[in-house]
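Task card 7
Instruction: Convert sequence to structure tokens.
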Amino acid sequence: MRDDGLERPEHQPGMALLLSLILCGTGQIYNGEVSKGIMMMVLCFLLWFVLLGWVVHIWSIVDSVVVAERLNRKAG
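Output:
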């Protein structure tokens, strides 16, 4: 809990989304799923060579938000 009395969720879905938008897999790393984040980074990088990296990138964005929300429900 913060000094102002307002409780902030530990995993902010907006932050996970922003990180995944910037670099595929970083939202998962932010959520504590390091191996999943690294796997997504590698897959995205490799698939960009055949113009399919956007598929993994979108999966990374959606997954990071869903996981952050799920972690917040568990903690709450």
